[in-house]
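Predict the structure of Thiol reductant ABC exporter subunit CydC.
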Amino acid sequence: MKELTFVMRMMMKEKKDIVLSIVLGFIAGLAAVLLFSASGYLISKAAFAPPFYTLMLVIASVKLLSFIRAFSRYGERYVSHRGTFTMLSQLRMAFYEKLEPLAPGIFQKYRSGDLLSRIVGDVESLQNLFLRVVYPPIVLALVFVSTIFFTMFYSIETAVILFVGFLLTAIVIPAIFAVRQRTIDSKVRLKRASLSTEVTEFLYGFRDLKIYQQLDDKEQQLLQASDAYIAEQEQEEKTTLFNQSLNQFVSLLVTVAVLAVGAYLIDTGELDGIFLAMLIMITLTVFEDAPAMAVFPIHFNDSRRSAKRLFSIIEQKDGQEQEHVSVAKTLTINEPPEITLENVSFTFTGEERRAVEQVDVHLPSGSKTALVGASGSGKSTLMQLMLHLVTPEEGRIMINGIELAHADEESIWQLANVVLQENHFFYGTIRDNLLLANDTATDEELQSILAMVQLEHFHLEDKVYERGENLSGGEKQRLAIARAMLKGGSFWVLDEPTSSLDAVTEQAIYEHLFRQAADDTVVLISHRLAGLEKMDQIIVMDEGKVVEVGTFTELMEKQGYFYEMKELENNLL
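Done. Here is the predicted structure for Thiol reductant ABC exporter subunit CydC.
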C-alpha cells in the first residue's frame, strides 16, 4: 500500500467531495432498495383489489423514491467525478514538481516513450482509485447493512441469506480473484509503455530507418509490441468478465434462495405472502452494485502498479527535499558569478567509468574560460555540473560563495545564458522561440538580435516546425545564440555553439557575443583551438580529468597536451 500513500494524500485533499459522494451514493442505493421494495409490495397489494385510496400512500412513496434515487445518483456521479478530476490535476502538478528538478538526467535512465506512458497513461489509470477501489466497498457495505437491518423486521431467514450473499459477492469472491490476479500479474501498463516507446522511436527515427533500409524491420517490432499490448488487454478483459459473471451468478442464486425460503415460510405460516414480492425485489436491487466488487481486485492492483511505476522515477526522501527547501539560497545577480569546483567527481547512471574525476577549477568573476579536450573528455558534463543539471557525487561547486547544492535552482538558471550542442525549438514562429528568453522584448529588439547572428533574412512570423525540422544546423545554432544573447544573464555557457558555421560567420557572431559579454563570466566549450588567444584561461581535459590550465601563451610554451592538440590542428588545416 505504500505505493498509494502519495496518491491517497492527494485524494484526501478533496475529502469534501469524497464524503459528499459517499453520502449521495448511499442515499441513491438505499432509495433504490426502498423503491423496488415498495413496488413489490404495491404489486402484491394490488392483486387483492383493495380500495384505490389504500394504495395512494404507496404510489406516492414510489414516485418520491424514484425522484430521490435519480437526483442523488446524478449528484453522486457529478461530485465523485469532479473530485476525481481535481485529484488527477493535483497529482499531475505534484508529479511534475518532483520530476522537473531531475531533468535532464532523468532521460539517461528512462526512454522518452516510457516516460510519456507513465506521465499520461499511468496517471489516467489512477482515476479508478476512488471511483473503483475506495468508493464501491464503502457504499455497498452501508447499503447492505441498512437493507439487512430493514429485512430483519419481515424475515430473519431472508436477512441471513442476504448477509451470506454479501459476504460471498463483496468479500470472498473478490478476495479469491485478488489472489489469482496477483499470480497473473497483468502487464498491460508495461506493454503500453513498450508500445509507446516503439512508436516514439519509430517517428523520431523514420528518416534514418528509411535511409538505412530498416523501415520494415522496425515496423515489425512496432506491430509485435502492438500485438503484445492487445493480448494483455484481452486477457485483462476476459478476467474482468469472468469475475463479473461469477459475481452475478452468485447474486442470482441468492435471489433464488430467497424465493425458495420465502415460499417455504409462507407455507408454514411464518411469513405473510404479501411480502414475498417485496423481499424478491429487495434482493434483486441490493445486488445491483455487487458486480463492482468483482472488478475491485483488478482496479486495485492496476492502481497500485500505476502508482509504483509513476513514482519509482522520482524516489526521494521527503526529509531530504524539505531540508533542501529550507536551506535554499538565492544567488545575487547584480554581478558576474565567481565559480569554484573543488574535488568534483560524477558518474552517469549505469556507467562504471567516471565522466568527471576530482576536478578542481576556479573561474574568477568576469573571466573568459575555454574548456577544450577530445570528445568524451568530460567537458559537457562539467558544464551540466556548473548549471546544476546533474549533482556531483563528490566534492562541491561554489557560485558567489554559495554551495550549488544549497542554492535556489531558479536563481542559478536566471544567471545563465546557455547554448547547447543540441537546442530544442518549439513548434510556432521565430518570435515565439525568441520570446522564451525574454518575453518583454519588442519586435525591433528581436530583429536586431537576428541581424547580429546573420539571420536577418528571417521574419518574426516565419514558421518553426517541431524540433526545428525546417531549419538547417547552422540556422539552429544561430537562433540558439540569438536566444541566449536576448536573455541578458551574466554567466555564459557555450557548448560548441558554432560547430556548424563557417569561419567567417563564426568570427562575426563571436565579435557581437563577446562584446555583449565583455564584463560577464564566459565558459566556452570548443574542439576548435583557433581564436583562444583572447581567453583569460584555457582548461584542458582528458578522460574526465583536468590535465592543464593556463593562458594560450603559457600552454604553448609548456608544450604539453594542449600544444600537441594545436600542432595537430594546424597540420590538418
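The CA atoms of residues 42 and 55 lie 7 Å apart.
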